[in-house]
TrEMBL record:
This is Zinc-binding alcohol dehydrogenase family protein. Residues 10-356 form the Enoyl reductase (ER) domain. SUPFAM superfamilies: GroES-like, NAD(P)-binding Rossmann-fold domains. It comes from the Bacteria. CDD domains: MDR. It comes from Bradyrhizobium campsiandrae. It holds the Pfam family ADH_zinc_N. PANTHER family: QUINONE OXIDOREDUCTASE-LIKE PROTEIN 2, SHORT-CHAIN DEHYDROGENASE/REDUCTASE. InterPro entries: ADH-like_C (IPR013149), ADH-like_N (IPR013154), ER (IPR020843), GroES-like_sf (IPR011032), NAD(P)-bd_dom_sf (IPR036291), Zn-ADH-like_protein (IPR051397).
Length: 359
C-alpha cells in the first residue's frame, strides 16, 4: 500500500509502498478515506515540539474511513462500516492509570513508547491498523462528507477537558486561546454542551468578531491589552457574573502571564482545565498563588485528551444537531502531496479550518 513515512526529524515525508497492516486479535483494519493535518505538524516533524517518536513512522493522528477487516472479538462492527479512528491508544492491563500513545503522533513515558512500537503507524496511508475499542461507528455518511467529519478529532480535545471539569448546562465558561484552532472548537463544544455564555479573550479582533457572528450573543468577546491585571478584570466584566470554568488551550509560544490572567478569573469553588502547551518548548512553567487556590477551593484539572467513551458521545451530539461540523472549511490533498498539505496546515491553522489528506 502507499504511505507517507517520516524517516528522520527535519526531513520531508517520503511517499513509499509499504507492507499492508496485518490483522491481529483485538484489532481492526481500516481503509483511510480522510485524515486531518494538525496546524503544528511541521513542528512535530522538525523536532520543535519534542514529541516522542520511534522512527521511522507513518504519521497521522486518527481519521475517517471504512472497516476493511475485523478480529474475532468485534461484535458490533461490520466490514464496510464508516468509522472514526480514535488516535488515543491506551494500554489494556491497567484501567485505572493506563499508559497512553497517540497513534501516529507521540507517546507518554516508557509505557506509551512500548504501545507506540506496536500501534506506531498512523493514518497518512491507504490503510491503518487500530485497536478495536478505538474504532467508533459514525453511521452512514458520504465519501465527500468524510473531510468535515475529521473535525471530530479537533473537537474531542476540548470536549475531554469539559468532561473532566463536569461542565453543566447554564454555566459560564472562559476559553483561554479561543482564537486558535482548538480554542475555537472549545467555544463551539461548550455551547453545544449547554453553556449559558462563553467568554472569548484574544487580540485578533476579526477572529473574535467572527465567533460572535457564528454563535450569537452567548459569546462574550474581550480584546486583550497585554496587561495581566487589566485583562483579568476585563474578562470578569465580560462574563457579567461568576465564571464557573476556565479552559486553557494556549500554545507553547504564549507567555505564562497571559494564561495566568485568564485562569485566575474563575470564581471561588470554580474549576480550571489545563490542556495547553505552557513550558512544553522550554521556559517558565505556570505559577499560581497557593493561598488563592487554597482559600478559594479552586479545582485544577490537568487533562491530556479525553476518556474512551468521549468520541461516541460527541458523534451523538453531531447527529443530534447540537454540534455542527459544517462550520469547518476543508482543503483536501491527496497522499502524493502530503508535504504540501503540512505546509498548508501551518499557514492556515486558524479557527474552523481543516487541512485534510485523502489517501
Amino acid at each position: 500500500m502507499k504511505a507517507a513515512v517520516l524517516k528522520s526529524l527535519g526531513s520531508p515525508l517520503a511517499i513509499e509502498d509499504v507492507p499492508a497492516p496485518v490483522l491481529g486479535t483485538g484489532e481492526v483494519i481500516v481503509d483511510v478515506v480522510a485524515t486531518r493535518v494538525l496546524s503544528y505538524m511541521n513542528e512535530v516533524f522538525d523536532g520543535t515540539r519534542n514529541y516522542a517518536l520511534d522512527l521511522p513512522i507513518i504519521p497521522g493522528p486518527g481519521g475517517i474511513g471504512r472497516v476493511r477487516a475485523i478480529g474475532p472479538d468485534a461484535t458490533k462492527l461490520s466490514v464496510g462500516d464508516w468509522v472514526f479512528c480514535d488516535p488515543t491508544v491506551r494500554s489494556r492491563d491497567d484501567v485505572v492509570a493506563p499508559d497512553i500513545a497517540l497513534q501516529g503522533l507521540t507517546a507518554a513515558g516508557p509505557g506509551g513508547m512500548k504501545l507506540q512500537r506496536h500501534f506506531r503507524h498512523g493514518s497518512y496511508a491507504e490503510q491503518m491498523r487500530v485497536p478495536t475499542e478505538n474504532v467508533k461507528k459514525l453511521g452512514q455518511i458520504t465519501s465527500e462528507e468524510a473531510s468535515q467529519w475529521c473535525a471530530l478529532g479537533t473537537a474531542l480535545v476540548p470536549y475531554g477537558g469539559f468532561l473532566a471539569a463536569k461542565l453543566q448546562p447554564g454555566e459560564t465558561v472562559l476559553v483561554s486561546g479561543a482564537t486558535g484552532n482548538f480554542g475555537s472548537a472549545a467555544v463551539s463544544v461548550a455551547l453545544a454542551m449547554g453553556a449559558a455564555c462563553v467568554v472569548t479573550p484574544g487580540r485578533n479582533e476579526a477572529v473574535i468578531a467572527d465567533l460572535v457572528r457564528r454563535f450569537g450573543p452567548r459569546v462574550k468577546p474581550v480584546r486583550l491589552s497585554g496587561n495581566e491585571d487589566d485583562d483579568r478584570e476585563a474578562m470578569k466584566r465580560a462574563a457579567a457574573g461568576p465564571i464557573d470554568c476556565v479552559l486553557d488551550i494556549m500554545p507553547p509560544s504564549v507567555a505564562t502571564s497571559v494564561v495566568r490572567a485568564a485562569v485566575m478569573t474563575v470564581r471561588a469553588y470554580g474549576r480550571i482545565v489545563l490542556m495547553g502547551g505552557v513550558g512544553m518548548a522550554g521556559g517558565a512553567g505556570l505559577e499560581l498563588p497557593y493561598p488563592w487556590i487554597m482559600r478559594n477551593c479552586i479545582s485544577i484539572h490537568g487533562v491530556w485528551m479525553y476518556p474512551p467513551d468521549a468520541a461516541g458521545r460527541l458523534i451523538a451530539m453531531v447527529r443530534a444537531g447540537l454540534l455542527r461540523l459544517d462550520e469547518y472549511a476543508t482543503t483536501d490533498f491527496d497522499l502524493d502531496h502530503v508535504n504540501e498539505a503540512v505546509a498548508h496546515a501551518a499557514a492556515n491553522g486558524g479557527p474552523f479550518k481543516l487541512t485534510v489528506i485523502r489517501p
